[in-house]
Amino acid sequence: VAKMNPESTRLNLMVKVVKAGEVREIYSEFVVGDKSGVVTFSATEAQKGHFKDGAVIRLQNTKVIMVKGFIRVVADKWSMVAPAAEDAPGGAPEIEVNSDKDISAVEYELTQA
User: Strand pairing partners for 19?
Assistant: First the structure.
């Protein structure tokens, strides 16, 4: 998680749901993380059922989008969001979350090169 930047794509992550955030009409936001840090995931209506506090989630082929200068991770139609399972790739690891490093709290500014 800590290595994400505004141009990150094809992210494959095993994360633990830390807390549910804002619920909006089209999507809901959840704070997820691993031992390197936390980030905000924007889940669609169909995806949000997987995100329960403390659940370990497997995110495959996700990408970063910028929302008002802040990083959000999203899963598009080519991505997969699934609960971690022993018989699935990556297994179902126990994840210690480092809440001190919030990648989505850093504001990025677009500058001219």
Answer: 31
